[in-house]
Fold this sequence. Notes:
Elements: H1 26-31, H2 37-64
Amino acid sequence: MSIVSPCIANCKLDADDVCTGCKRTIKEITSWSSYSTQQKQNVLIRLQTQKLDTLKLGLDTHSSKGWTVTPS
């Protein structure tokens, strides 16, 4: 099974060597082609979890400003 890279061609590393586009570390980017399917899936799961956490933080920020957030 071939897993496509999460690269979105918006490549720029931040001070921690994390891509501001796809959010992978420099090690994950440079090792992607040699990663096993399981390793790639682990990276994708981490990225998805990180994205959900970021969205949750945004919702929490809005609720502190008087917005009501109802969990689904």
